Amino acid sequence: PPANETLEKNVQEWAAKNGVKVKIDFFTFDTMSVKYTSGIETGALPDVGEMESFDAIRFASMGKLTEVADLLKTISSADGGLLPNLDLGITFHGKIYGIPHYQLVNLLYCRKDLLDKIGARVPQTWQELSDTATKIHNAGYMTYPIGEAWTYQSDGYNAWQGVLYSYGASFADKEGNFKPDFNQPKAREAIKWATNIYIGKPRLTPPDCLAWKGYSNNEAWLRGEIGFTWNGPSIWYRLVAENHPLKNKTILALTPAGPEGLRVGIPELMVLGVFKTTKYPKLAKSLIKYLLSKEPHEKFIKSAYGQVSPAYYNFTKMDFWKENPNQLNCMEIGKYTGLPGYPGPVTPAAASVVASFIDMDMLQSIITGHLSMDEAIKIADKKKEEIYRVLPH
Predict the structure, then answer these.
(1) Do 57 and 348 touch, CB atoms closer than 8 A?
(2) InterPro entries from the xrefs (predicted)?
(3) Which of 19, 59, 73, 263 is least enclosed, having the fewest CB within 10 Å?
(4) 257 within 8 A of 190, measured Cβ to Cβ
(5) 162 and 184 fall within a common domain
(6) Pairing between strand 107-111 and 48-52?
(7) 207: closest CA among 143, 111, 159, 155?
(8) Which residues on neighbouring strands pair with residue 82, listed in sequence order?
């Protein structure tokens, strides 16, 4: 992607200015955690590593990352301050262990032509989403309008977290302690919505949805098979780059709100960390500071087709976001961020709950009829409680 090329150019520009040589490794989301875990075991860690916020907290709890509060203060002051809740993804036991780089946001994709055919607006709540999809189905315009897979991939789990948190429920409280779903009526409402799009009448999701991979909804959208899905701007990038026929029929909308108007967007917060094994801590911090300075970071944002959403207020003011409504929403949703363990901090326990896909098992067991809702919630709660008993929170 162009953004990777821009990032590499920014790094090499910094290297030239500082008279040093830099080796850069890129790897996918699927292999990122494995690469770092392997590096911890072998001692072969980079000087600076980019990672998701829950990995930053996990590695901080293992004593592998350098505390960087002073660096964050300098960068945040220059860039207008952090957007809401992002500090929760870099703080462990009151100390700062990472520098937010950007957010890989997720939005609700909507087919404008289908909305126009039934005279509907962009859905503002999850319930309005399923109601609108039902109207599209009943009108015969699309059989299975919602492409949302509750499976073992980040798109599905992040979408589910957005539903759960926006309904006012969570598996953790503001202090980061475990909170069972079984005792939360709002959690049950969220679970009912998430399962009804599969087992309600009419069914709103494709029959093979529970077999989908992380890319499956992207491909289904590009084939014109679904009318709504929750995804990052990667689909939009494809539509623009290929001048796809659906480009002008696609709306990227803010994540729907819950029944009381609470809107929680679930991004992947990308964090830059300095590993304690580095022999060059001053240079490592200098590189991070440069990457988040005005000119290099604006170039990076512009090269990403909305896939890089700001972590700092000053970058939300770029004219780039005003070029079209879809790009604008890629930035706006970053102001509604919730991270694993919302409304509390990201903790090793919260990160493990998300990484274990416990709620995906819960939703699937209800959808397939293997368990009742009560049985599925109890099993999920028990698994989460065990994680919170063992890991820091």
Answers:
(1) yes
(2) Bact_solute-bd_prot1 (IPR050490), SBP (IPR006059)
(3) 19
(4) no
(5) yes
(6) unpaired
(7) 143
(8) 312
